[in-house]
Amino acid sequence: MLKFYKYHGAGNDLIIIDNMNGKLVLSKKQVVLLCDRHKGIGADGLILVESRENADCFMNYYDSDGSIKEMCGNGIRCVAKFFTEQKNFSMEELLVATRAGVKKVICNDDGSFSVNMGTPVFSHNDFPNGPLTLENISFDFASMGNPHAVGIVKDLNQISLLEIGPRVENDPHFPNKINVELVEKVGDDYFKVIVWERGGFPTLACGSGACAVYAILKNENKDMGEVTLQFPGGNLHLSQNDEGQIILRGPAEFVFEGTINL
C-alpha cells in the first residue's frame, strides 16, 4: 500500500508522497493513474519529496499526464506545508531543490509561504524572442524554468480557454509546447488570470505562470510594486526584490491523506 498526502495551492491540487529514502520509482502509467480523478486519487500533478545534499529536499514533480516538469510554484509551497506538518520542520526557511534550481521558501506568520522563484528569462529556445499574435491575441513570453505565453485581453468572459489553450500550447512556434496564461486588468495592482497548463488541461492556478505574468507586466511598468493575481482557485501575490528575482506569496492547504494499492 502506498501512503499519500493531498494538498492544494490556490486550487492547484497535488499528490505528495514521502520518498526521502529514494526507494519508490513510479512509471508514467502509475502517475497518470494516481492523478486520474475517476480511477485514482485525482490531482493536477504529483510530487515525490526526495532527499538532496544541497537542500532540505528535492521536489520531483510530474504533471498529471505523467510527464516530468521543471517545477511548480504552487507545488513548492505545498511541499513546504507538507514539511511543516508531516516532517515536523520547525525552521522559518526551507530550501527545496527543483529541476529549475534550488528555491528558498519562507514560512510566514500568517500561514502563507513566500518563494523566491528566481529571475525570469525572456530569451529562450522554447519560444520566440518577441511578441507573437496567435488567436487574435498578442502574446509575450517568459520562462521561470518552464515556458509561458502571456496574453493580455480586455474581458476573460469573452475567452474560450478550452479552444484557445490547446491551439496555442501546440502551435509550431513552441517545440516543447508551452503554458498559456490569459490576463485581464481589473486595477493597477489587481489582475484576473486563467491558465491552460502545458500537457493539455486547464488549472485553477499556476505559480510559475503567475510569476511569468508578473514578469511581463513588470516589463511594461517598471514602477509596479506588489500585485494580486486572481485565479479561479484563489489569489496569489507577486513582487520583485532588488536583485530582480520574483517573489511568489500564497497559501498551501492540506486536503486529506490515505493509502492506495498500485
From TrEMBL:
Q: Report the sequence similarity comment from the record.
A: Belongs to the diaminopimelate epimerase family.
A GO molecular-function annotation: diaminopimelate epimerase activity
Q: Which pathway is recorded for this entry?
A: Amino-acid biosynthesis; L-lysine biosynthesis via DAP pathway; DL-2,6-diaminopimelate from LL-2,6-diaminopimelate: step 1/1
Q: What is its EC number?
A: 5.1.1.7
Instruction: Give the protein name, as stated in the record.
Output: Diaminopimelate epimerase
Gene Ontology CC: cytosol
What's its job?
Answer: Catalyzes the stereoinversion of LL-2,6-diaminopimelate (L,L-DAP) to meso-diaminopimelate (meso-DAP), a precursor of L-lysine and an essential component of the bacterial peptidoglycan.
Binding-site positions, substrate: N12, G73, N74, N146, N179, E197, R198, G207, S208
Please provide the record's keywords in A-Z order: Amino-acid biosynthesis, Cytoplasm, Isomerase, Lysine biosynthesis
List residue numbers at the site (Could be important to modulate the pK values of the two catalytic cysteine residues): H148, E197
Q: Which residues are named in the active-site annotation?
A: C72, C206
The domain of life for this entry's organism is: Bacteria
- What InterPro entries does the annotation carry? DAP_epimerase_DapF (IPR001653)
**Oligomer and partners:** Homodimer.
Q: Which Pfam families match?
A: DAP_epimerase (PF01678)
Q: Which reaction does it catalyse?
A: (2S,6S)-2,6-diaminopimelate = meso-2,6-diaminopimelate
HAMAP family per record: DAP_epimerase
Biological processes, Gene Ontology terms: lysine biosynthetic process via diaminopimelate
Q: Does the keyword Amino-acid biosynthesis apply?
A: yes
